[in-house]
Amino acid sequence: MSAASSRLQAALAERAQVWGGWVVGPTILGPEEFATAGYDYVGFDTQHGYLDDADVALMLRRLERVPIATAVRLPSAAPAPIGRVLDAGADAVIVAMVETPEQAAQAVAATRYAPAGVRSFGPLRADLGLDTPALEARAGVYAMVETAAALPNVAEICSVPGLSGVYVGPADLAVSMGQPVSAMWSAPEVTDAIKDVARSAAAAGLVAGIHAGDGRIGKLAAEWGFQLITLASESQALRRGAAEHLRDARGQTPTTQTTSKGYS
């Protein structure tokens, strides 16, 4: 794998949409199964998941020769955790709860070495090389837009130099707008806000990402202009597959698919 570009960048350049899985706990087979199923990327969650830096580093190393891109969600723009997952080989970081262009700029700075940023040089992957401009170039950085407070600032957030894109967290967005989580895909004010984020990203030439939560919502998000679309977590995929096997064994008719929680 070349340090000059990442698998995620290559996938986004080749396809209108890239489809992702999500991992919230330590696993050996999960990311590889997403790759086998044809997913383009897998996200590792260190905000709401049960993963630490060591877990992520080990899983990233296992994926070195598996054809799938990687991203890591972090709870803040703190430079040290961002630097560690990038040093371990992550293609991109997704930084939670960004509400201002200043916070987005901090996230970008955490992926850049001096004088452009505050990332400390500490390579963990020999295959990525030592060329700092190349290491910076392959490090995608996405600002999560997931609060009502962020909405008036989306255009300014999208104008931050070095930002790769924005990533919508629909559950937190709905809650912050006074809606229940169950209404995140049905309340017009929430869905209108989500569409506006996609339009702002497109206007700025950035990638629009979103945590869809299932295939049906993922298809809808693609129609709204999103490109980086997370479909399901490992636990969701396991639950659905396990339920289908049990229905088959019992000779039951599949139930109508319900709207996924799609938590972010």
Automatic annotation (TrEMBL):
- List every stretch annotated Disordered: 242-264
Query: From what superkingdom does this record's organism come?
Result: Bacteria
Q: Which UniProt keywords apply?
A: Lyase, Metal-binding
Q: Which GO terms describe its molecular function?
A: lyase activity
Keyword Nucleotide-binding annotated: no
Q: Which intervals hold domain HpcH/HpaI aldolase/citrate lyase? A: 32-236
The molecule here is called: Aldolase/citrate lyase family protein
Q: Which organism is it from?
A: [Mycobacterium] wendilense
